[in-house]
Design goal:
single chain; 718 residues; alpha/beta; FAD/NAD(P)-binding domain; Phosphoribosyl-aminoimidazole Synthetase, Chain A, domain 2; 20 helices; 38 strands; globular
Length: 718
């Protein structure tokens, strides 16, 4: 008898992907708590490890070396990842607010968001300077500046340890590039006040040796496009200005309903806030029982205690007490491959210290790089013939990658013929065409096996995917019913999940012009979301069969979502690739459909891949097609993953639809099943350029990818 998964009964929400939470997720993956639904909320798919930032700036590390990939980590831990910035928290209601989505409810929550900066408050900073955090934009702009030529003029605001490390790294990098540089470090108070006298003296000596000018006890009055204007009136010319000063808590914590100390969340020795269901760790927390300075070492040491106490709050075990160390080893980068070590007033510097620091940093990051991949399904010792082939060597994909192959569908549907006069036969088209009281109405149904554990994102994808059939017919969405299969959840979690799904579905469909008029729910092993939709055709529908030889083929979205999500399931995809794919899948195509209203033929590219859907359009139109492989846009990461041999489970079926086409490299993506893919339109040659211009102006990454031909064959050129 089939044994369904155990129900989820409590929501544990981790706010922020800081060091403490990253370690909690790593340990949770080794021993998850049955019944707990774990959620991580973070603005982006990665979390930078600040300890290696100076090494990156100096040129010792690549950009990728700094990032903890939260997408892979969440997959390993079995956590749903919500990508978005927290805008508020209501401890009384036990909810967290994230922009653009319904509130996220919790039973137990933990906050590990670090701190932010006051730098943008300096007049002109937002317009003319680059904050050191968030790391992504800073890293991109610094790399571009470093790659330039000619003399460099750099200014860093903030003379603490972070600012000193940053300015020394910049000086080293510019010197290594052979660029003359004028570099200035400015602090409104005495620089390096948090270090001991000997350490401060050695760092000052290194700063001077690197040719950096240090200005202390002087504030910044304003920033212009090419200079700093100091409070004394002195002007410092600079064409790259950054800041590492003014650390402060995030604004949203002020109204969260928790006890605060100077804006930071006060916690007791159990890392528990004034609300026993909310914990905090790292720089955003104030250790009220034993105040400590803001330093990453405390966040790392807090992680095991935090994990234990979160489990205790969920009903397992007893809380433990965190005892912070009185002092800790400070390892400070000095620009080149040299570092300073300080503890208990003693300071030592040199290459050995840098190698020690590098070893500690690399050891920490290796914990998150070397995550086990999802194991292949283990077959029983005795099983029926054909089981190994049916299971395959990959985990079953979600989205349109879980679709039944086209061959099986065609055979099953072949005997079915319309018997009603008000149903117009359109074999293989995107939607059925009905005549209802004199109105032309199209109707379609789609449902998707979840490919992400975030029900809000999955709902957006499923709705956009289903609407694609309506838009491909040139119709206007009208009404929808929703079909949901929820995993086993406690009643409170059922209500939370349904609220997230239905609120999101209503928003997406309302923006598309449709109304939800009903639906059905049931409980099963995993989340599945489906929609049945109707649309109205103010003009004759755009079918598959109207294409003409010479028509230009336009594709409105890049391909590759199947490969990327298959790699994500196996822990092989980079987080930013997954985030980009999800973003593209949630983008509606309604405006594109209206722009392409005069297309001769149109379809949406989904489960059968670009080759399969183009073949269907060409066959219905009595044409062939020439595709320009180099012109076909792909999602970031899709081509390298395809080159590695990553495939969706539907790839083989799709490949069999066009066996005459060559494979290998980018060509394999022609058979990649797409979820909520773009529109593929055949338009007249005379209108193609204007349509592309209009699509680009509307924000669609549309491309001209080929033409329809007289010869009834598909050809690909590269």
């Amino acid at each position: 008898m089939h044994q369904p998964p155990l129900p989820l009964t409590r929501d544990l929400v981790l706010i922020g992907g800081g060091h403490s939470h990253a370690l909690v997720l790593r340990k949770w993956g080794m021993s998850p708590l049955p019944g707990a639904r774990l959620t991580l909320i973070n603005p982006g798919p990665t979390a930078p490890y600040s300890g290696m930032l100076p090494g990156f700036v100096a040129g010792h590390y690549t950009r990728d070396a700094l990032d903890i990939d939260l997408v892979r980590l969440a997959r390993y831990a079995g956590a749903r990842l919500v990508l978005g910035a927290v805008t508020g928290m209501n401890a009384a209601a036990k909810t967290v607010s994230v922009g653009g989505r319904p509130p996220i409810a919790y039973d137990v929550a933990s906050v590990n968001v670090g701190i932010t900066s006051d730098m943008p408050a300096v007049p002109g900073f937002a317009e003319h300077a680059v904050p050191a955090k968030p790391l992504g934009p800073f890293a991109e702009k610094w790399a571009a500046y470093l790659a330039g030529t000619g003399p460099a003029r750099v200014a860093v605001i903030g003379g603490g340890v972070a600012g000193a490390e940053l300015v020394m790294a910049m000086a080293h990098a510019l010197k290594s590039r052979g660029r003359l540089a004028e570099i200035t470090l400015v602090d409104q108070a005495q620089a390096l006040s948090a270090t001991g006298p000997k350490a401060a003296r050695l760092i000052r000596q290194t700063i001077a040796e690197l040719g950096v000018s240090l200005i202390e006890n002087t504030g910044v009055a304003r920033i212009d496009h090419d200079k700093l204007v100091l409070s004394t009136g002195q002007e410092i010319e600079a064409d790259f200005i950054t800041g590492a000063a003014g650390a402060r808590p995030y604004d949203w914590t002020a109204n969260c309903g928790l006890d605060l100390h100077e804006g930071y969340i006060s916690v007791d020795a159990h890392l528990r806030s004034s609300d026993p269901s909310v914990f905090a760790a790292g720089d955003c927390a104030h250790l009220s029982f034993d105040p400590r300075p803001k330093a990453g070492v405390y966040a790392v040491r807090e992680a095991p205690i935090l994990l234990n106490n979160l489990r205790a709050a969920m009903g397992v075990g007893r809380p433990k007490t965190y005892k912070p160390q009185r002092d800790y080893l400070k390892l400070i980068s000095l620009g080149g491959k040299s570092a300073l070590a300080e503890r208990l007033g003693t300071a030592v510097q040199g290459g050995l210290m840098w190698r020690w620091k590098d070893h500690i940093d690399q050891t920490f990051m290796t914990r998150f790089r070397d995550l086990p991949e999802m194991p292949a399904t283990k077959l029983p010792a005795e099983h029926a013939a054909g089981m190994a082939e049916a299971v395959g060597d990959k985990p079953m994909c979600g989205g349109c990658g879980a679709k039944v192959g086209r061959g099986a569908l065609r055979q099953a549907l072949a005997p079915m013929v319309p018997r009603r006069a008000d149903v117009t036969p359109l074999p293989g088209d995107d939607a059925a065409l009905l005549q209802t009281g004199g109105a032309r109405q199209v109707m379609t149904s789609d449902h998707l096996r979840s490919l992400t554990d975030d029900p809000v994102v999955m709902t957006r994808i499923a709705a956009v995917h289903a609407l694609g059939d309506i838009w491909a017919m040139g119709a206007e969405p009208q009404a929808a019913t929703v079909t949901l299969i929820l995993p086993r959840l406690a009643p409170a979690l059922q209500q939370r999940t349904l609220t997230e799904i239905m609120t999101t579905a209503d928003q997406v469909l309302m923006e598309a012009g449709a109304e939800i008029v009903g639906g059905h729910t049931s409980v099963g092993d995993e989340l599945t979301i489906g929609f049945t939709l109707t649309g109205l055709c103010p003009r004759p529908p755009i079918t598959l069969g109207g294409g003409q030889p010479g028509d230009v083929l336009i594709l409105t979205k890049p391909i590759g979502s199947g490969v990327i999500m298959a790699a994500e399931m196996a822990g092989q995809a980079r987080g930013e690739w997954v985030a980009s794919a999800l973003d593209h899948m949630t983008r509606p195509q309604g405006q594109a459909s209206r722009i392409l209203k005069d297309a001769h033929a149109m379809t949406d590219v989904t489960g059968f891949g670009l080759a399969g859907h183009l073949q269907g359009l060409a066959e219905a139109s009595g044409c062939g097609a020439d595709l320009d492989l180099t012109a076909i846009p792909t999602l970031p990461g899709a081509e390298p993953l395809a080159a590695q041999g990553v495939r969706s489970t539907l790839y083989a079926d799709n490949r069999n639809l066009a066996p005459e086409l060559s494979t290998g490299g980018k060509a394999d993506l022609l058979f990649d099943p797409q979820t909520a893919g773009g529109l593929l339109a055949a338009v007249s040659l005379e209108e193609a350029d204007d349509l592309l211009t209009e699509l680009h102006a509307a924000g669609y990454p549309a491309a001209r990818i080929g033409v329809l031909t007289k010869a009834a064959a598909l050809n690909v050129t590269d």
